[in-house]
TrEMBL record:
The gene is glgC. Keywords: ATP-binding, Carbohydrate metabolism, Glycogen biosynthesis, Glycogen metabolism, Nucleotide-binding, Nucleotidyltransferase, Transferase. This is Glucose-1-phosphate adenylyltransferase. Homotetramer. Its EC number is 2.7.7.27. The keyword Transmembrane does not apply. It is an enzyme of class 2 (transferase). Involved in the biosynthesis of ADP-glucose, a building block required for the elongation reactions to produce glycogen. Catalyzes the reaction between ATP and alpha-D-glucose 1-phosphate (G1P) to produce pyrophosphate and ADP-Glc. The lineage of its organism: Bacteria, Pseudomonadati, Planctomycetota, Planctomycetia, Isosphaerales.
Amino acid sequence: MHRDVLAIVLAGGRGTRLEPLTRDRAKPAVPFGGIYRIIDFTLSNCLNSDVRKILILTQYKAVSLNRHIDQGWKFLCRELDEYIEVIPPQQRIAEMWYQGTADAIYQNVYTIEKAAPRDTLILAGDHIYKMNYAEMIAFHRERRADLTIACLPVPRAQASDFGVIDVDSAGRVLSFLEKPKNPPGMPGNPDMSLASMGIYVFATDVMYELLFQDAAKKEASSHDFGKDIIPGMLADSRVFAYPFRDENRKQAAYWRDVGTLDAFFQTNMDLIQIDPILNLYDRNWPIHTYQPPMPPPKFVHTDPDRRGAALNSIVCQGAIVSGGQVYRSILSPGVRINSYALIEDSILFENVEVGRHARIRKAIIDKDVKVPPGFDIGWNRAADLARGLTVTEDGVTVVAKGEDLERFMPMGG
């Protein structure tokens, strides 16, 4: 166990591009893959890397995230000096919300000091990937680095969404450009750029000094690691790039920012492929989560026109497919599909109930929605928009948590 390392997970993002899924919850708390939340991947990486001192910094709409951590992640033992602790904004230093990633850490310096870590691992709570942080920490210490930044090659056309790094032959960072309009290509591979993953290992004493210097600038800084801290330390500090080593054990490295509804939908749909890109079945690198105490999934009725079946789909505990047909979809815990209903290419969150003869295609339906009998979702874009539902560029219809669809039914219907 890395007793001298503290992991800090930044989990305060609004996730506005994921609305309405983030209408009632922070982005890291959005359900993923049937039984998981997005933050489970970062936390599982910590656990599997033997990093067991973890602070989660929350901010917006944190109730759902707090509940999930309390239910599924409170098994670490304080007596053995291992813990996962949720830290809401303290406003200990200033009466304001976090102004940026660096300010979020700065406002919690007192809590970090109590843990007295030699190195501080800073992570985002809203990415899907598998990574052994222990190897990155070893790399950081071998090079006596002040800061190590995890990075991966991305197509240059997409690199404007990232911090872009230029390195020398020894891997030392020469420049760091935050979301540049014209990102530089990699040496020898001009169509690709080296992108920061937002995963940092800091020598803690160096980090303190940088944070205090940045805080003193007040309005002259946006208090962000990518925009302010990292570019400002390159001249005088040892900053290295760490090439992402994927624990997913597939041919291509897997790292996803499910920042938009279409990216979220596609990343979920990847899981139901015959050989999914993201390997959830590796017992050497388990993804932990809260598992509600529910019975196994159940399939009811065998009549040719009323057969309970799910094909090329993920069906979670407590789900009942009662005489309906499900194709290429994800049914979360407690979902019920009633007779003659048809579900295609869709993601149904917990406790969604689909009435008889209802049809759902290419949709994301958030928790606790009751789809009325005979109701269609995803079959008519104009009709979905007229009901006030969200329809994405790629044509995915999204129904918000607890949405009352009965109000769209004709009187007496």
